[in-house]
Amino acid sequence: MVRRAMTLLTSAVLLVGLTVAALAIPVPYVVASPGLALNTLGEIDGEQVIRIEGQPVYEHDGALSMVTVQYSGGPDSRMNLFTTLSAWLSPTQAVLPEEAIFPPNTSAEEVSQTQAAQMDNSQDAAVAAAFNELGIDYETTATVHAVNEGYPAEGVLQSGDVIVEVDGKPVADKNEVVAAVKDRSPGDTVRFLIERDGQREEVEVGTVASDSGDPIVGITVEDTMVFPFEVQISVGRVGGPSAGMMFALGVMDRLDPEGLTGGHRIAGTGTIDPEGNVGGVSGVQQKMISAKREGAEYFLVAAESCDQTFDSPVTGQIEVVKVETLKDAVAALENIREGNLDDLPRC
Q1: What's the start-to-end Cα distance of the chain, in Å?
Q2: What is the pLDDT of residue 152?
Q3: Average pLDDT, stretch 100-116?
Q4: CA angle, 40 as apex, 307 and 321 as ends, to 5°?
Q5: At 257, which helix (H) or strand (E)?
Q6: Does residue 248 sit in the same domain as residue 188?
Q7: Which of 75, 105, 225, 327 is deepest in the core (most CB within 10 A)?
Q8: What is the rounded distance in angstroms from the CA atom of residue 207 to the CA atom of residue 218?
Q9: 79 CB neighbour count, 10 Å cutoff
Q10: What is the pLDDT of residues 147-193, one digit of tens each?
């Protein structure tokens, strides 16, 4: 009997030990939790989130808050199975495959750099979209973003070059550059008038056929906006493109004598392009929790993200308004100000 009891006790200890060891094993998952909610009309570290110079600005009551998701884990700091299971059981967290946030063979530092670039681009797009909505004119330039190795442009064009003309014809944006190059035939030479370090020069670049047969020179071109006055947006170390819509609304509110919120607390998430199109994002359920904790009454979300709003722990506790464009968001805020809640488009 004593031997049998010792055997059972030893087995139990081994089982507990193996279970504890298994729970401590790092696993390739990422946990998404509610993150920061930041009022774009307010301050961060004692400075306005949106600072405008060279134009009259206004301050109003209410809030237009961007909301974020906080991610834990990743290839450089994997969580253990116990923590992951606990998050899976939590109503406020979500467990995602690691590759959903960190593509294969990508370090956490590389992801952070990509998100920082996305944040910068989203801010420029937000200012452009706000200016378009307000009828404020600005200029665009076509700028070389990257030169692909092994293509004709390598060693001739550089990142940061502003393309002024293609084959003697002025170009104002990347679409015009692409169209001008595609107007040639593979093997042709294209003349670019570029501006580099404040100096203009003309260069010639050959073309080769792309996979689709179109002529290309091997560059990536992006639009750079030149605004008539300075708009700076500072949000600390937050990255990614999902605050674009709220940035655009924040810029509009600072430039509008009447304001957009009517004193209401609004939060939201969605990307934006210079034309004002609002795009879907991930992590909406966690962002809704952040918005509710911040005291938001209304939550603006891209129409294509509506399906993420149905199962949030705060569903039914905050009014969810779907938008497809910045114009839709502005119209929704007008209805909120005037109390026309029946006219709000909901998910």
Answers
A1: 67
A2: 95
A3: 77
A4: 25
A5: none
A6: no
A7: 75
A8: 8
A9: 20
A10: 999 999 999 999 999 999 999 999 999 999 999 999 999 999 999 99
Residue with the two structure tokens 């404040």: 198
Whether residue 277 is found in the same domain as residue 334: yes
Spatial neighbors of 75 by CB under 8 A, at least 6 apart, are 28, 98, 102, 106, 107, 108
Task: Specify whether 49 is located in the same domain as 127.
Answer: yes
Residue 45 · residue 248 · CB < 8 Å: no
Same domain, 254 and 124: yes
CB 305 within 8 A of CB 280: yes
Q: Coil, helix or strand for 172?
A: coil
Owning domain of residue 214: 140-223
DSSP letter for each residue of 134-162: HT---EEEEEEEEE-TTSTTBTTB-TT-E
205/218 Cα distance (integer angstroms): 10
Which residues are registered as beta bridge partners of 157?
Answer: 154
Give tens-digit pLDDT for 233-288. 999 888 889 999 999 999 999 999 999 999 999 999 999 999 999 999 999 999 99
Query: How many Å apart are CA 56 and CA 65, to the nearest integer?
Result: 22
Amino acid in position 248: A
Question: Whose CA is closest to 253, among 266, 241, 236, 234?
Answer: 266
**How many domains is the chain partitioned into structurally?**
2
Helix (H) or strand (E) holding 80: none
pLDDT at 17: 40
Average pLDDT over residues 94-121: 79
Angle at 140 between CA 135 and CA 144, to 5 degrees: 155
123 plus 254 within the same structural domain: yes
Please, is 115 exposed, middle or buried when counting C-beta atoms within 10 Å of its C-beta (0-12, 13-18, 19+)?
middle
Among 194, 223, 252, identify where a domain stops: 223
Per-residue pLDDT tens digits for 323-340: 999 999 999 999 999 999
Among candidate residues 264, 248, 266, the one with its CA nearest the CA of residue 256: 248
Q: Is residue 81 part of a domain?
A: no
